[in-house]
Amino acid sequence: MRTFQTKRDMIDALIGKLKKAMDGVSDHRMAAGNLQHSLGDILMGAFAMFHLKDPSLLVFRQRLEERWANLQRVYGIGSVPGDTAMRQALDGVNPATVGKLFNSVLKVQEELGLWEGRRVLGAYLAVSTDGTQHYCSSKKSCAHCLVKQKRNGETDYYHQLLAAVQVHPDQETVFPLDIEPIQQQDGNSKNDCEQNAAKRLIPRVAEKLPRGMQGLMLLDALYATGPCLKLLKAHQLSYLATVKDGYVLLQAGRMAEKGQLKQYTWMTKGKQHKVSYAKGLSHSGTHQDLEVNYLSYTESDARSGQELYKSSWVTDLDFEEVQLPEMVSVARARWKVENETFNTLKNQGYQLEHNFGHGKQFLASVLASLMMLAFLTDQVAQHVDACFKKALAYCKTRKNLFEKVRQVFDLLPCMSMNVIYRFIAKEITLDFPMLE
Fold this sequence. Notes:
It is a single chain. By secondary structure, the protein is α+β, with helices and mostly antiparallel strands. Helix content is 42%, strand content 21%. Strands 1, 2, 3, 4, 5, 6, 7, 8, 9 and 10 form a 10-stranded mixed beta sheet that branches. A hairpin with a 5-residue loop joins strand 2 and strand 3. The longest helix has 22 residues. The chain is globular, with a radius of gyration of 24 Å.
């Protein structure tokens, strides 16, 4: 597979790198012998389904004949089995294997020098972490399903995932680093939870950070516990974690009553911003050895004084007052994992909550991981690929762009995704051969 020469052909080189990585995945079916379709082709077939935003695996298979030549040229696919056989093959793939495929994209981002422009507070890459549900059924279940008993007597079987997404407060794009399934663990009778998934995900996030970059985890109050914060420090990760109750707020309240909290205010576009802060507070009675710094932030209308937003955080970062505006902006960027990631995956063509397949082992989690990988690929293209940006500007919304990409892919012979973006952006017309 070729490497990219310019940002213009980056997306196709990136897909090529992914295909090479998928071809290197150990095939769990080897004992069966006489395998007609390689696991690499099956993985890339599922990736292509999500990259093209097909509404289901059945539709992907139904369109196979009309788009076969393009699937070979653009995605390097040699053959694809029927939808049932495809699900069976993917069902046995360990989700951790798919997680390693993210490294191929992250390496391209590093080669592009993309990370330098994503630093915050001088030295950090901000990583937001949160969970979401991606499968739910009252009929189909597997050994890894989470289980919820409803009041009406029915039982829900569902899957969730925990995502670690690199974000920047001033940039629209977000870059998933990895995801961890929140699913029933082997040998356990109780449901898995976000905190347990975080214990598995955090070490991998630390490993995936680009060389020379420090990680700053943006967390909600669920993770502001002593064990979680200590785990972050053990892996050299800093944190900004929301706090809503507990010993830190009790200490801060007492300091406020005595006038001991320091204050810092600033104004922007008719809004007043105020931070009250203190350093060196004890996290809790149980974890008195863990010192944290505390920030309480309030945004108000400058004229009326009406409160518009309020939140509090704990952090291990040492800071100067002049850094507080950026620190607050970074902390609030935690919502990008929900707004720019999960919301996009659910409502902008990827259809995260649609049941593409459940299986008996890992299928639901593997498909969610491949969808996230396709989303990451699109986000890199949106960030650095001029042709993608022009096509997106022409189509106005991602959903419209993805629909146009699928239409062109199905109707015209194309050598690359780059030429599809150029065609949509009116850089080339049908007067030019699409195979060039």
